[in-house]
Specification:
The structure is a homodimer of 223-residue chains. Chain A has 223 residues and is of the alpha+beta class. Chain A folds into two domains: 138 residues, Jelly Rolls; 76 residues, Arc Repressor Mutant, subunit A (Orthogonal Bundle). Chain A is 38% helix and 24% strand. Chain A has six helices and twelve strands. In chain A, the strands form three sheets. In chain A, strands 1-2-9-4-7 form a five-stranded antiparallel β-sheet, covered by helices on one side. Chain A has a four-stranded antiparallel β-sheet with strand order 3-8-5-6. In chain A, strand 11 and strand 12 form a beta hairpin. In chain A, helix 1 packs across helix 2 and helix 4 packs across helix 5. Chain A is globular. The interface between A and B is large, with 37 and 37 residues. Chain A binds a DNA duplex (30 and 30 nucleotides) through helix 5.
Chain lengths: 223, 223
DNA sequence: CGACTGCTTGAGAGTACTCAAGTACTGTGG
DNA sequence: CCACAGTACTTGAGTACTCTCAAGCAGTCG
C-alpha cells in the first residue's frame, strides 16, 4: 500500500447548502489517497474501525472467515462505493483489493475537526450505512430463499447494473462469487454454463460477459 | 392497533450530557404508544418509513415476500429493540407482532422539532442502524455457510442470549424459524429433535426450552 | 514451451426438500 | 368434563439439488 497524499489539514469553512461538495470531493478533501495492488489487504478482521474508505478506481472484496476455514464474502465494492462502515470498534470482516485499486480514506474520529464539512460527511456515512443495510438484506433473501441458478442470475444482474456498459468485466474469481453466493465454485461454474447454453447471457473468456435476454434474466431474479 | 397516548408535544430543553435520557425514555417522551395483538401488522411492505419503533413488551417479526410466495423472515425484535430503521422512503419488509405487543413509535420527520432530545435520538437511531447491519451480516454468514444443525443451534443460542433466563419461551412458530433460517419447517423440527436427543437442549412442550450443554452448543455455533 | 493458476465438466454421495401421515396442543361446544 | 375440530408440530420415505472428489481444459507468465 502506498500513501500518495499528505495528512489532511482541517477544513472548516462555511458552505451554503447548495454548494456542498459531493461525497467524492469530500473524501478527496478530507481524506488520504491510498493505492493497493491485486489481493492486497486494505484492512484486517479485528482491526480498529477508525477509517472509512471510498473507492476511487478498482474494486474491493469484504470477507469473513469461520474458524474451520469456510469463507464468506460479505460484499463487493466498486468505484464510488463507501466501505468500512461499522459501528463496532473493531472490523468483523477484512477487505482486500480485487485488482489494482485506489481509495481515499477518512479518519472518522477527525471528522469533528472539519466543521460543516465533517458534519456533512457524517450524514453521508449514515446514509451509506442505511443503503448498505438494505443491500445486505436483499442479499440475505437471496441466500435464504433462492436456488443456485437464481443466485447466479441475481449476481450477474446486480453487477451488470452496477458496472454498466454492454460488456461487463468481472473483477473477481469464481471462488469469490461462490463464497459470496453461498455456493461452491463448481456449482457457480455449472450455473454460468447453463445460463449461457440457455442464451440468457454470453461469455467472452471467463471474465467478460453480456446479457442477451434481459427479460429472462429478470424473471430468474424475481423478487 | 390502539393508540394509548396523545400526540407528543415538542420537548426542547437543554440536557447536560450525563443526564441525557435513555433510549427507552426518549421514545416514551417523544413517541406514541401503540398495542398490537398476535399476528397483527405493525407496518406493511411498501408503507412509508416515517415512523421508527421501539418494543416495550412482546416481540415482533419482520418479513419479506417473494412474488412466488416464498417468504423470508428478516429478523425478530424483542423488548428494548428498535425497528423500522430504513433509509429508503418505503419499507422493504413488513412487520407483525408475534404475540400481544406494545411499542412506542416516533415520527422521524418530527425529530428536528425536538431540539437536543431529537438530535440525541437521531444519534441513537444511527447507532442502532449500525448494530443492525452487523447483526444482519452475521446472519448472512449463517445463511451462506452453515448447515441445518448449525443454523438451528445458532438460532437457539441467539435467542437464549437475547431473552435470558434459565428457560426460554419461543414467541415464534416453527414456520417463522424456518423462514428466518432459510430451511423448511420439517428440517427445523428434525434438527430440534436431534439437538434434544443429543442432550444439547431440553424442550418442555414445543415452545419452551433450556440449554443443557452450553459448550456443545457453542461448538456448533462456531464462528 | 512448460508450469501454474483458474475454470469447467463428470460421476457419485449427502443433505435438505417434498409429500404424506401421524401426534400433540388449544379452544369450543355439548 | 369430555368430545371434537383446528392448528401446530413431528416423523417417515423417497426425491432432488448441491456438494465432494477427480480429471481435463484454458488462459497467463516466465
Amino acid at each position: 500500500m502506498t500513501l500518495t497524499a499528505a495528512q489532511p489539514s482541517p477544513v472548516a469553512r462555511l458552505y451554503p447548502a447548495e454548494l456542498m461538495p459531493s461525497v467524492g470531493e469530500l473524501f478527496e478533501r478530507a481524506g488520504v489517497a491510498m493505492t493497493f495492488c491485486a489481493d492486497e489487504e486494505i484492512y484486517a478482521q479485528g482491526e480498529a474501525t477508525d477509517l472509512v474508505y471510498r473507492v476511487t478506481s478498482g474494486s474491493v472484496r469484504a470477507a469473513r472467515l469461520l474458524s474451520d476455514g469456510r469463507r464468506q464474502v460479505a460484499g463487493f465494492y466498486y468505484q464510488g462505493d463507501l466501505f468500512g462502515l461499522e459501528t463496532a470498534p473493531i472490523h468483523r470482516a477484512c477487505t482486500e483489493a480485487l485488482c489494482d485499486t485506489r481509495v481515499f480514506a477518512v479518519r472518522r474520529s477527525a471528522l469533528r475537526h472539519y466543521g460543516e464539512l465533517g458534519e456533512h460527511l457524517e450524514r453521508m456515512l449514515w446514509r451509506a450505512t442505511g443503503e448498505e443495510l438494505s443491500q445486505v438484506r436483499d442479499h440475505m433473501l437471496l441466500l435464504a430463499r433462492k436456488n443456485a441458478v437464481e443466485r447466479v442470475a441475481g449476481f450477474l444482474d446486480d453487477i451488470a447494473q452496477r458496472l454498466g456498459g454492454d460488456w461487463v468485466d468481472l473483477p473477481m474469481t469464481r471462488q469469490d462469487i461462490a463464497d459470496y453466493l453461498g455456493l461452491t465454485i463448481e456449482t457457480v461454474s455449472r450455473m454460468l454454463t447453463q445460463l449461457q447454453v440457455e442464451g440468457v447471457v454470453q461469455f467472452q473468456g471467463c471474465r467478460r460477459f453480456r446479457i442477451r435476454a434481459p427479460a429472462r434474466l429478470a424473471s430468474l431474479v424475481a423478487a
